């Protein structure tokens, strides 16, 4: 399999300003496409930021605007897009929703964040999802989660235990816990023997500062790319999946699991 180029779109999410954010997302997606990316990956809640008390006015109704925006850009540039997540309103409830599109603009997956982050009061406004997020990009079996979800290794294992090779994470992870971000992500890569591609935003909300520090980690836990702090940009890495088989053969954790003991 030829190397697969991932582009991390570490951009500034303007608080409660969807129009600004759609423009900025478009600019970064077009930049990634010009660099020859295979997949562009966006951060969490990139349309509104954590403007939770303004979601009635700002959330994307049924995700229609985001879906047509991402679908059009994936067709225009012929690239896959892991669309981070956006605040949506579906029926009468708000969600933190991720959409994934293939190169032809087909929606591959829609995922509502499963674990809601109380420290940012997400649980008071957003409804938790209960569905999985697995999809294939150019024949690569992948999964995606959102930010706080990475603190629940049993969830990533659930999504990764059927041979998935690539885990995407989109986040608004505050600077003050950035060491934990890195440790958690390296552990998710090692235990699942898979590549981890994690995009954090820059910017700030009313209470938090986001410094970026987006990461690409290989299946042994080595850091292939650490995006600079506080810097907007498109950061690229090429992934070589040929090493995964050997790593899983040498230490076969998926074969050695004792799932009958795990309750
Ligand atoms: N947006 C989030 O889910 C933040 C999660 C976080 O900061 C954490 O420490 O966990």
Automatic annotation (TrEMBL):
<feature type="domain" description="CN hydrolase">
    <location>
        <begin position="4"/>
        <end position="241"/>
    </location>
</feature>
<protein>
    <submittedName>
        <fullName>Amidohydrolase</fullName>
    </submittedName>
</protein>
<dbReference type="GO" id="GO:0016787">
    <property type="term" value="F:hydrolase activity"/>
</dbReference>
<dbReference type="InterPro" id="IPR036526">
    <property type="entry name" value="C-N_Hydrolase_sf"/>
</dbReference>
<keyword id="KW-0378">Hydrolase</keyword>
<dbReference type="InterPro" id="IPR003010">
    <property type="entry name" value="C-N_Hydrolase"/>
</dbReference>
<dbReference type="Pfam" id="PF00795">
    <property type="entry name" value="CN_hydrolase"/>
</dbReference>
<comment type="similarity">
    <text>Belongs to the carbon-nitrogen hydrolase superfamily. NIT1/NIT2 family.</text>
</comment>
């Amino acid at each position: 399999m030829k190397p697969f180029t991932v582009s991390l779109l570490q951009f500034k999410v303007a608080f409660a300003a969807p129009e600004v954010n759609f423009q900025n997302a478009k600019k970064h997606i077009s930049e990634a496409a010009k660099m020859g990316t295979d997949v562009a990956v966006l951060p969490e809640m990139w349309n509104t930021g954590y403007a939770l008390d303004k979601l009635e006015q700002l959330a994307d109704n049924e995700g229609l605007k985001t879906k047509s925006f991402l679908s059009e850009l994936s067709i225009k540039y012929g690239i896959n897009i892991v669309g981070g997540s956006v605040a949506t309103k579906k029926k009468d409830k708000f969600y933190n929703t991720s959409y994934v599109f293939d190169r032809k603009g087909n929606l591959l997956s829609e995922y509502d964040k499963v674990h809601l982050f109380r420290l940012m009061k997400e649980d008071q406004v957003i409804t938790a999802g209960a569905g999985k997020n697995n999809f294939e990009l150019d024949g690569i079996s992948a999964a995606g989660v959102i930010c706080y979800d990475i603190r629940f290794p049993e969830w990533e294992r659930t999504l990764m235990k059927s041979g998935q090779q690539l885990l995407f994470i989109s986040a608004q992870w505050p600077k003050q816990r950035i060491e934990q971000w890195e440790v958690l992500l390296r552990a998710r890569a090692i235990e699942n023997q898979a590549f981890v591609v994690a995009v954090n935003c820059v910017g700030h909300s009313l209470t938090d500062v986001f410094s970026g520090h987006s990461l690409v980690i290989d299946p042994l836990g080595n850091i292939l790319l650490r995006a600079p702090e506080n810097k907007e940009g498109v950061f690229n890495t090429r992934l070589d999946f040929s090493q995964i088989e050997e790593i899983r053969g040498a230490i076969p954790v998926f074969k050695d699991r004792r799932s009958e003991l795990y309750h």
